[in-house]
Amino acid sequence: MTKHRAVNEYRISSGEYSAAITARAAALRELRYRERDLVVPFPAGGPIPDFRGIIAAPWPNRVADGRYTFDGTEFELPVNETDRGCALHGLVFELDWTLESHDGTSVTLSCTPEPTAGYPHALRIAVEYLLTDAGLHSRVTAANLGSTTAPYGVCPHPYLVAGASPLDEWTLELPAATFLEVTPDRLLPKDTRPVEGHPFDFRAPRPIGATGIDHAFTDIAFDDAGHARVLVTDPGGTGVGMSWDSSCAWLQIHTADKEPPAANRLGLAVEPMSCPPDAFNSGTDLVRLGAGATHEAAWTIFAM
């Protein structure tokens, strides 16, 4: 009997771009332009460190204590961020996604996470990655296959790389007027604050410096076509950008700070989110995905 080898990842390319997407978590393992990395990669065939490149759904970021109430019923999710006591980054990053289609420039993967006591809803989540000469375009579509309304949110989790210089020397342009204060120990939401006069004001491009960021931003400036973008540039002249549509009114930025001996500040996490952290409890911008309904969110990563 012939044995079929499991496919761990799918490669696509277009012009001077190439990418590798893993079956596990439908994660963006590698994105390159002219042989330089646009995201922090990770080794093929192994674990995914720091959630690099995953799709976070059916919620982005964290749910405090893994507990929430939806439509009058209390639910409890598994706590996988044990040091902060939170349920982190959804339910689909540990799954092997199913291949729907794959050609030279695109790949589509899907998953149907099993309903659980903490999230008793039947969803199908699909992501399409498409490479063109304009960059890597990603679109996530969630469909509610069940008979009950489901709370829902989504985000990607790439760590962008502007160039060879240290992150502190990169210049950041971030079109957000407000950020979300968080508790220092658990990174749980407190209040929103204007960036005006604060170290988090990157509306005009400037170097990141030693500023440490692990916060959500909102009041984002979308253009007339309904898109916003973050630009990160290296002093050597290279750069990387990310644009997204108005389905994501929030943006998590993280400077990937690590304690020694771990590698520190390897890339800048840029995560367009459909809702803020702990939205399952606050309800802020939480998608109520009705029976038979769908939700789409899209973003693009491109070289500069």
Automatic annotation (TrEMBL):
Pfam family, one: Aldose_epim
GO molecular function, one term: aldose 1-epimerase activity
GO biological process: galactose catabolic process via UDP-galactose, Leloir pathway; glucose metabolic process
This protein's name: Aldose 1-epimerase
Source organism of this protein record: Arthrobacter cupressi
